[in-house]
Model the fold of this input.
Amino acid sequence: MIGKISQYVETASTGDAGSSLRDAIDVARARVSILENELDPERIREKLNASLNIIGRYMSAYADALELEHRASQLRLDIRNLTVVADTLDGPVSLFRMGSGENWVGYCVLAHLALQKRMAH
Done:
């Protein structure tokens, strides 16, 4: 859609049309620029990383309150593998290696709560 809008704006002839058409073209160009900026992959990646860091902080706080195994470690949500990971001094520990079913349920619940809290802000 952005490509079609850009093509139209670039090929639109202002010819004898009044200044209102030129103003509309300027507004359309500005809108296209804003949309291109919003679709910038680097900007999207930065926003995603910031949100994941915030979610990780929430998860760590919840794990401490629930007294789960690895609660002293920094927790994070691994979106590539859709799992919770504890970053320990011995390296990352994925959810399936975090002990008992009680821990698994606890980490799933706290991940859900952290995501909900982030979405609310």
